[in-house]
Design brief:
By secondary structure, the protein is α+β, with helices and mostly antiparallel strands. Helix content is 31%, strand content 33%.
Length: 377
């Protein structure tokens, strides 16, 4: 069985942990660089490595996957001592959905709500808004057609693979210095034909430098030095395959021993496992979550303000027209009539009598049952 790292199915999700581990080799090379590594805290193995300028600041982590893609991924940032030049790899964005086959997927809140293959350009525009930077221009993504061909070459009778890339130049300020930044987005999707299941992931990276001195040549050696450790990949694959085999054997034993009823119980346990995973796996980076919470709060305050203005306008309109809102305690219906009277009585036929006399109760005069309306505000 051939397993491709970014597409672990989610059955064998690792224990949730976000442990930032980085290890800088103290001896710089002749080119003034050093090697930094990121360690998988679950397997305690080196997972990724990079070669960066020796005096740059680095911090990185190996993050577990999400409930819709359990493959781990790197998150890191590196920058020059003054912070004006650097590289960031943001948390991966995952989403999954199923065809209308009666078996909808349940993905956790850390997954995006998309139900389609989203182009890289659309993800790029979304990130420009999230990061609140000035969009300058779009740039051609390097080797886009080759990337698409490579992805399509991985397709088989069981699944179809696609990929897309996009790049844009944005601008912002650090203090009074104009910073030019390039946002790079890579989107990969896989469709499992036999079960009608789709899964996509988007990887977003940022490279920046002062506008007048920005050069792609600064970052190309860093990008090209990125290495995924083969021993770690092999270990991940071995664990994943073993768990699949274990689950398969357990399912077969259950089928042989208990038949259809045992299979139903197995499915129930599997669903409970997925639901537990959804509760534990919330992996969006803090700045994205905080920004979303701030947006929600701002929208809520705006709605409250709009409601208050609407209520004030409605009350002012009633005042201008000499009207008073009345609540029928029997039906909960609110009506309006003249505010010149303090009390309004309504009978079963909907007839209304208004008076300023608190003792003027029309009940008992042979005209039906009368209910006193309650004044609203």
């Amino acid at each position: 069985m051939k397993i491709i790292g970014p597409f672990f199915s989610g059955v064998a999700a690792l224990t949730l942990a976000i442990l930032a581990l980085h290890n800088v080799v103290p001896t710089a090379s002749a080119q003034g660089t050093c090697v930094v590594t990121m360690t998988d805290p679950i397997l305690n193995m080196q997972a990724y490595s990079l070669s960066i300028p020796a005096n740059w600041i680095f911090d990185g982590a190996v993050m577990p996957g999400t409930s819709c893609n359990d493959g781990p991924f790197p998150v890191f940032r590196m920058m020059s001592p003054d912070g004006l030049t650097g590289v960031k790899q943001l948390p991966r964005l995952d989403w999954t959905w199923a065809d209308n086959n009666g078996k909808p997927l349940k993905s956790g809140e850390e997954c995006l709500p998309y139900k389609r293959e989203v182009p890289a350009e659309e993800v790029l525009k979304y990130m420009v808004g999230v990061l609140e930077v000035e969009y300058v221009r779009e740039e051609p993504a390097a080797d886009l057609e080759q990337t698409r061909r490579n992805a399509a070459a991985q397709s088989s009778n069981m699944f179809a693979v696609s990929a897309d890339k996009a790049r844009a130049v944005v601008r912002y300020h650090i203090n009074k210095i104009v910073i030019e930044e390039k946002l790079n987005v890579f989107v990969s999707c896989r469709y499992f034909r036999n079960i009608g299941q789709h899964g996509c992931s988007a990887s977003v990276s940022r490279v920046w430098a002062p506008e007048k001195s920005f050069s792609d040549a600064t970052f190309q050696p860093i990008v090209k030095s990125f290495v995924v450790d083969k021993q770690w990949t092999d270990a991940r694959t071995k664990i994943y395959v073993q768990k699949i085999n274990d689950m398969s054997e357990a399912s077969m034993r259950a089928i042989k021993q208990m038949g259809d009823e045992a299979m139903r119980r197995s499915k129930a346990q599997f669903n409970a496992f997925n639901q537990a995973q959804e509760m534990r796996q919330r992996q969006h980076e803090q700045f994205l979550a905080s920004m979303q919470r701030g947006t929600d709060m701002s929208m809520a305050r705006a709605q409250e303000s709009a409601n208050a203005r609407h209520q004030a306008a409605d009350d002012w309109c009633d005042y201008s027209l000499d009207q008073q809102k009345r609540l029928d305690p029997r039906t909960g219906e609110i009506t309006k009539d003249s505010s010149a009277y303090s009390y309004t009585w309504v009978n079963d036929q909907g007839k209304r009598v208004q008076t300023n006399d608190v003792n003027a109760n029309p009940n008992g005069n042979g005209t039906g049952n009368w209910t006193l309306q309650e004044n609203v505000r």
